[in-house]
Amino acid sequence: MKKAPGEEPDETLTVTPPKKWAAGVPAVAHALEYSLEETSAARAGQTLLTMNQVDGIDCPGCAWADPAPGHRHRNEYCENGAKHINDEATTRRVTAAFFREHPVSDLARRSDAWLNQQGRLTEPMVKRPGSDHYEPISWNDAFALMAGELTSLGSPDEAVFYTSGRAGNEAAFTLQLFARALGTNNLPDCSNMCHESSGYALHETLGTGKGTVSLHDLHHADLIFLVGQNPGSNHPRQLSALEQAKRNGARVIAVNPLPEAGLRRFKNPQKPSGVVGRGTRIADRFLHIRGGGDLALFQGLNRLLLEAEDARPGEVLDHDFIRADTSGFEEFAAHVRGVDWDDVLAATGLRREEIEQVRDEVLRSERVVVCWAMGITQHKHAVSTIREFVNFLLLRGNVGRAGTGACPVRGHSNVQGDRTMGIWERMPDTFLDALRDEFGFEPPRAHGLDSVNAIRAMREGRVRFFLGLAGNFVRATPDSAVTEKAMRTCRLTAHISTKLNRSHTVCGETALILPTLGRTERDVQASGEQFVTVENSMSEVHTSRGRLRPASPLLLSEIAILSRLARRTLGDTPDIPWERFEADYGVIRDRISRVVPGLHDYNRRVTRPGGIPLTNPVNEGVYANDAGKALFTRNAFEAPRAPEGHLLLQTLRSHDQWNTVPYTSNDRYRGIHGSRRVVLVHPDDMTTLGLTAEQNVDLISVWPDAVERRAEDFRVIPYPTARGCAAAYYPETNVLVPLDSVAEGSNQPTYKAVVVRLEPATTATGAGGEHGDDGLTGSTGVTRGV
After folding, report:
1. Given a cut of 70, is residue 769 above it in pLDDT?
2. CB 654 within 8 A of CB 671
3. Hey, which residues does 697 pair with through a beta bridge?
4. What are the CA-CA distances from residue 208 to residues 167, 401, 438, 617, 629 (Å)?
């Protein structure tokens, strides 16, 4: 059970064997338990019964696609979605009295879970220079503060505008329009931390930054790869789609350093077999791969397919497709034939027979889909790995046909829609030209700052103003101590938020909390009740309409906040109807329809059941890249290695967590209860390193600079990770990820490949005490010189 809002969660660790299946009746029970602790049965019923329904509330959690209208279950949500939506619908409130009782220095020592549990923010607050307290401020004065700061900047590029996937399309479009009208492309977003590598690789090879599959494709594939993802915790409704695929005869290959419960068996609580039966086996084959060995695996697999073609000419590869639709095959083939098997086996930790068995599965399959998530994208060689996935798909023509394709699985509800709306620091000239033609101003053309470069710029004193639209920038980003120090150099930091988080405690000279409506709440503006739109992982744009009474009469919508700030800052130059945007979101959609391809007649089409399926050009044989064709690539062999006496650490989230916010200290599918301060290590590695079960250790990351990054006082848990690998929860271990450790090409932080050594804890307090003095639960956040 959770603690009351005034208390920190207990930290009494208990460990049980990992679960062998996911969901089932326990998922329903835990979802209802959490929901009813947050709000009333009536409110919970109102949110859950409209969630993911036509004209209902889009789940603010993951971006998994909904079944077609008429095919949705009455309870079209998962355990985590139910927790997430009722976490927002909580009846707890954070008022001015709370901030009088809790100075910023006190809040900074609190855990992420405690901050979240205090409830919904209710009125705008300001922390003024030299003060240790937030105090109330009127909306008018808050806008005056921000506009004054923005108009006094030496350059628009001294401002940064960050966006999370919680924002709807209309708010995202309004924010990017304001930033560009101001004169900057500094538009970092949460994609910079999660799927930047996917977009970079897919655009280069296929000419699209998005996946190419639909739910129908997944349902009718013969073979599905799940690589570097944990659907049981991070996007549980994918398990329903996989169950349908299995019913249709698909086979599933899971590739992961950890044996996740959801990849083993799924008990669908919406079906009798999921309640009283054994459920559905998901993975027919599990490849227990070493972290970062996926590039080596697919290069080895591609070599085997070429050799199979040599043995059976014309029977393995799709030569007609390769000739007509691709470029670079000969160079790719010559390169991959030279891949050394000893390197492949060392990098993957697999036996050659295991990879050959996968080849045989591929040869028996006419339709193949490759799904992946952040277990792939957060490596130094992530872009090369995804390009190798594309090579694999191209060899047998597994793109552009029904039941085939590339499927990056997004972990946040509208992160893909943000990009469609222009939230990217490197939008192409075609988009900027359309903005110019529609709104009559010349947008800046120089590329702006992504998340990592924004931190670097703040650290160097080149950014003075930071605005966060939803999200928790400080806790989502790497190198926590460096990030926090950088944020504190700003003259003004402002966060548009529904609930408290760690970012509110890391303040610029002046700091603002701007409370906003949540997705669950009714949004009534001058023209009447509004809805917003979102885009899921499979490029479907549809509506989301809130149902609940707002948490406070002082809340403004995201669009109202942005429109008023823009009007106050820019006045009437350029001539953008900010006031009309706030009054009627349909006006925004009208303008979007003339800027964003595929969204013509936006207002009418999006209200149809199922919304607007955006066309992916790849599925029409169009490749909008430099080659004009699907591109085979040569990818240098690479795999992360940990020196002797070290492990390769991946950061991950627990089952009872959404993004940076833990709901409880439990991770029941992995058998961890009561504490997040754990590091999962293979028993053989524990023996080699001289570690014992539940020993207190510090984690120290290794990076070629004169800095020691240390996460203090973790408990060692024997766990069936891949040999040489370890795992621990973020955001507690983000402190270990060097800011300069990024994926080549995409500049995405390498949260899944941190070389660490484990030392006996220097400040061990057991599983229950306070740790550190800077509020970073699970780490000291201290950066020490060596």
Report:
1. no
2. no
3. 714, 760
4. 23, 16, 24, 8, 11
Distance (Å, rounded) from C-alpha 249 to C-alpha 637? 34
Sole residue written with tokens 């959690």: 61
How confident is the model over 699-716, as pLDDT tens digits?
999 999 878 899 999 999
- Cα dihedral value 702, 704, 709, 713, nearest 10: 10
The rounded distance, in Å, linking the Cα atoms of 89 and 28 is 18
CA distance 487 to 174: 24
pLDDT at position 706 is: 78
Domain residue extents for the chain = 14-88, 101-192+414-611, 196-408, 647-785
Q: What class has domain 101-192+414-611?
A: alpha beta
Q: What mean pLDDT is predicted for residues 564-568?
A: 98
Which neighbouring-strand residues pair with 513? Answer: 125, 495
pLDDT digits (tens, 9 = 90+) for 245-257: 999 999 999 999 9
Q: Does domain 196-408 have CATH number 2.30.110.10?
A: no
Buried b (16+ CB within 10 A) or exposed e, 457-467: bbbeebbbbbb
Helices H / strands E in the chain, number of each: 32, 34
Non-local (6+) Cβ contacts of 117 within 8 A are 2, 3, 5, 92
HSE-CB for 699 with a 13 A CA cutoff: 31
**What are the φ/ψ torsions at residue 185 (nearest 5 degrees)?**
-105, 20
- For residues 425 and 187, is the Cβ–Cβ distance under 8 A? yes
Burial of 382 (0-12, 13-18, 19+ CB in 10 A): buried
Q: Is the pLDDT of residue 694 over 80?
A: yes
Flag whether pLDDT at 782 surpasses 70.
Answer: no
What is the chain's percent helix, strand, coil content, to nearest 5?
A: 35, 20, 45
Residues 6+ apart with CB under 8 A from 528: none
Residues 6+ apart with CB under 8 A from 760: 695, 696, 697, 698
Question: How are beta strands 265-267 and 280-281 bridged, if at all?
Answer: antiparallel
Q: CA 510, CA 159: separation in Å to the nearest integer?
A: 14
CATH of domain 647-785: 2.40.40.20
